[in-house]
Amino acid sequence: LKELIENSHEYDIVVPWHGEQRFEPMCAFYHKNVESTFLDFILQNNYKIPDAFERVKTYKYLISQDLPYFSNDLFFNVNSQEELFVLHGKLKSDHD
Predict the structure, then answer these.
(1) How far apart are CA 68 and CA 83, in angstroms?
(2) What burial letters (b/e) apply to 48-67, b meaning 16+ CB within 10 Å?
(3) How big is the chain by its Cα radius of gyration, in Å?
(4) 3-class SS at 5?
(5) pLDDT tens, position by position, 16-31
(6) How many CA atoms lie within 13 A of 13 on its CB side?
(7) What is the distance between the alpha carbons of residues 51 and 31, in angstroms, rounded to a whole number?
Protein backbone atom coordinates (compact mmCIF):
# COMPACT_ATOMS: atom_id res chain seq x y z
CA LEU A 1 0.00 0.00 0.00
CA LYS A 2 2.87 2.36 0.71
CA GLU A 3 3.90 2.46 -2.96
CA LEU A 4 0.32 3.09 -4.03
CA ILE A 5 -0.06 5.94 -1.56
CA GLU A 6 3.22 7.51 -2.65
CA ASN A 7 1.92 7.70 -6.23
CA SER A 8 -1.63 8.75 -5.38
CA HIS A 9 -0.97 12.51 -5.33
CA GLU A 10 -0.30 12.89 -9.05
CA TYR A 11 -3.02 10.63 -10.42
CA ASP A 12 -6.79 10.19 -10.30
CA ILE A 13 -6.43 6.42 -9.93
CA VAL A 14 -3.51 4.31 -8.73
CA VAL A 15 -4.17 0.64 -9.37
CA PRO A 16 -2.08 -2.52 -8.87
CA TRP A 17 -1.41 -4.03 -12.29
CA HIS A 18 -0.08 -7.45 -13.32
CA GLY A 19 0.38 -6.49 -16.98
CA GLU A 20 -1.93 -6.78 -19.98
CA GLN A 21 -5.51 -6.25 -18.72
CA ARG A 22 -5.02 -7.80 -15.28
CA PHE A 23 -5.75 -5.23 -12.57
CA GLU A 24 -6.64 -5.26 -8.87
CA PRO A 25 -9.32 -2.51 -8.88
CA MET A 26 -10.58 -3.41 -5.40
CA CYS A 27 -7.15 -2.51 -3.99
CA ALA A 28 -6.75 0.77 -5.88
CA PHE A 29 -6.78 4.39 -4.75
CA TYR A 30 -9.44 6.58 -6.35
CA HIS A 31 -9.51 10.37 -6.13
CA LYS A 32 -12.96 11.76 -5.40
CA ASN A 33 -12.95 13.66 -8.70
CA VAL A 34 -13.44 10.38 -10.63
CA GLU A 35 -16.91 10.00 -9.15
CA SER A 36 -18.52 11.67 -12.18
CA THR A 37 -16.61 9.38 -14.55
CA PHE A 38 -17.90 6.30 -12.76
CA LEU A 39 -21.41 7.74 -12.67
CA ASP A 40 -21.28 8.22 -16.45
CA PHE A 41 -20.26 4.57 -16.86
CA ILE A 42 -23.04 3.38 -14.56
CA LEU A 43 -25.64 5.42 -16.46
CA GLN A 44 -24.42 3.66 -19.62
CA ASN A 45 -24.79 0.25 -17.86
CA ASN A 46 -21.02 -0.20 -17.97
CA TYR A 47 -19.83 -1.65 -14.67
CA LYS A 48 -16.29 -2.54 -15.79
CA ILE A 49 -14.01 -0.52 -13.52
CA PRO A 50 -10.92 -0.89 -15.76
CA ASP A 51 -12.76 0.90 -18.58
CA ALA A 52 -12.48 4.10 -16.53
CA PHE A 53 -8.69 3.78 -16.39
CA GLU A 54 -8.47 5.05 -19.98
CA ARG A 55 -10.62 8.13 -19.26
CA VAL A 56 -8.75 9.57 -16.28
CA LYS A 57 -5.12 10.01 -15.25
CA THR A 58 -4.24 6.49 -14.08
CA TYR A 59 -1.00 5.08 -12.71
CA LYS A 60 -0.71 1.34 -13.25
CA TYR A 61 1.56 0.12 -10.46
CA LEU A 62 3.26 -2.98 -11.83
CA ILE A 63 3.12 -5.99 -9.53
CA SER A 64 6.03 -8.20 -10.53
CA GLN A 65 7.97 -11.06 -9.02
CA ASP A 66 10.90 -8.65 -8.63
CA LEU A 67 9.18 -6.81 -5.78
CA PRO A 68 10.74 -7.68 -2.41
CA TYR A 69 7.32 -8.36 -0.90
CA PHE A 70 5.92 -10.33 -3.86
CA SER A 71 3.82 -13.37 -3.10
CA ASN A 72 1.44 -15.39 -5.25
CA ASP A 73 -1.12 -14.72 -2.53
CA LEU A 74 -0.56 -10.96 -2.45
CA PHE A 75 -4.10 -10.46 -3.80
CA PHE A 76 -5.98 -13.45 -2.43
CA ASN A 77 -9.62 -13.28 -3.52
CA VAL A 78 -12.17 -14.15 -0.83
CA ASN A 79 -15.75 -14.68 -2.03
CA SER A 80 -16.91 -17.55 0.14
CA GLN A 81 -16.61 -18.90 3.65
CA GLU A 82 -14.41 -21.70 2.32
CA GLU A 83 -11.98 -19.17 0.81
CA LEU A 84 -11.99 -17.28 4.10
CA PHE A 85 -10.93 -20.46 5.91
CA VAL A 86 -8.16 -20.99 3.34
CA LEU A 87 -6.95 -17.43 3.91
CA HIS A 88 -7.06 -17.89 7.67
CA GLY A 89 -4.91 -21.01 7.31
CA LYS A 90 -2.39 -19.14 5.13
CA LEU A 91 -2.17 -16.26 7.61
CA LYS A 92 -1.81 -18.63 10.54
CA SER A 93 1.01 -20.57 8.85
CA ASP A 94 2.78 -17.27 8.02
CA HIS A 95 2.82 -16.34 11.71
CA ASP A 96 3.86 -19.75 13.08
Answers:
(1) 26
(2) ebbebbeebebbbbebeeee
(3) 16
(4) helix
(5) 998 888 899 998 999 9
(6) 24
(7) 16
Please choose, from the candidates 21, 95, 93, 8, the residue with its C-alpha nearest in 3D space to the C-alpha of residue 58. Answer: 8
Instruction: Give the three-state DSSP class for 57.
Output: coil
Domain boundaries, the chain: 2-63, 72-96
Q: How far is 51 from 44, CA to CA, in rounded Å?
A: 12
Q: How many CB atoms lie within 10 A of CB 14?
A: 24
- Tell me the whole-structure pTM to 2 decimals: 0.75
Residue 12, CA distances (Å) to 8, 32, 43, 76 in order: 7, 8, 20, 25
Q: Cβ(59)–Cβ(7) under 8 Å?
A: yes
